[in-house]
Amino acid sequence: MRVLPIFLTMAITSAAAAQGSPAYTEQPSHRLRIESGGHLAETLQQGDGNFAETRQSGEGNRATILQRGIGNTATIRQFGGGLQAEANQTGGAGIAITQSGRAGTIQVQQFGPGAASAR
């Protein structure tokens, strides 16, 4: 049995914003897509033992985590507006991204067995 630890937290400023918060999941790969309060958080996992966490506050932030293989860990935290982050991992990689302010973009790709962790 596969355990899929995906944690997504978004600040929702009103009940109206909460009503427009669809979440999607697909099998056999694990995909979760959440849109809320102008934010988008998407996680796609293929393999076992992967961990993904996204936290967003502010407005209009986008975060994507793509994980393939075994034992990847990724955390994206966004505090501000217009921020974009993408983590693409294979082979037991670890990453933590924190963004604050306005209109920043980061993309990190890690490939190979036990790719070096980045912070």
Automatic annotation (TrEMBL):
Similarity annotation: Belongs to the CsgA/CsgB family.
Pfam families: Curlin_rpt (PF07012)
Name listed for the protein in its UniProt record: Curlin
Keywords from the UniProt entry: Signal
Extent of the signal sequence: 1-17
